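Example 9 (inverse folding). The structure is encoded as follows.
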């Protein structure tokens, strides 16, 4: 089951002002953002951060099939993918995002990029456990084109 959450733009933020935007130009995220994560607690934490950083709608999926359904139905502006899911890796999701030109980062417990398929070894990786600041830094460093290919 997919969990789509729409958040009002004027919702109060608990994120420090310095981390709310990537620069004076505005929020880090805009529009719809996909989070693919099979750990509910982590997914909820990331959803809160992404919302506070400007996403208008957050789509959460716990497996590849759910994520692919969302990708087929929604014009996404960015994504955060847990690499190892209960049903395998998020490689198929990454392939679909690349095909649509959607920037994304991987989030994983693996710190060694060589464990990823060769075509994704140069992509940004957030190593678990990660913080709100890490998410901000990853997208600031790699924006606007997070995907290097």
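The amino acid assigned to each position is listed next.
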């Amino acid at each position: 089951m997919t969990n789509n959450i729409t958040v009002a733009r004027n919702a109060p933020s608990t994120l420090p002002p310095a981390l709310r935007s990537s620069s004076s130009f505005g929020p880090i995220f805009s529009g719809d953002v996909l989070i693919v994560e099979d750990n509910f607690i982590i997914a909820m934490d990331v959803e809160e951060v992404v919302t506070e950083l400007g996403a208008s709608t957050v789509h959460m999926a716990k497996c590849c099939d759910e994520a692919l359904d969302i990708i087929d139905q929604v014009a996404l502006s960015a994504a955060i993918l847990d690499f190892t899911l209960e049903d395998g890796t998020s490689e198929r999701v990454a392939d679909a995002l690349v095909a649509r030109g959607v920037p994304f980062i991987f989030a994983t417990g693996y710190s060694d990029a060589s464990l990823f398929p060769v075509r994704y070894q140069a992509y940004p990786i957030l190593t678990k456990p990660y913080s709100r600041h890490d998410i901000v830094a990853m997208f600031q460093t790699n924006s606007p084109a997070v995907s290097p290919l």
